[in-house]
Amino acid sequence: SGQFSHDIDGNFIGEGDFETQTRQTLENLDRVLDGFGVTRSNIAEMEIFLTNPKEHFEQCVVMFKEYVGDHRPAGTLIGVSGLAFPHQLIEIRAVAHTN
Fold this sequence. Notes:
- It contains 2 helices and 3 strands.
- With 99 residues, the chain is an alpha+beta fold.
- Helix 1 (18-35) packs across helix 2 (53-68).
- The mean pLDDT is 95.
């Protein structure tokens, strides 16, 4: 399922702060990957949902590239009118292979 900006206890992190929400979301994705015994290099595809793509597009692309490093999975960025929580600015869904 999609990952968003919540901590291990389910508390929302980074209300109003796109960078904080994105970093937390990516940390959550890392936790899911680790649970399956894979790493970022196993990601085949990422879908990123943004509530304000005009404002956050450039920063999102920079953080995506930083996150995946030299590995370049397929990526799709989708602008949406809202997400599960009203203060949620980003949600990330990824597909990874487990070899």
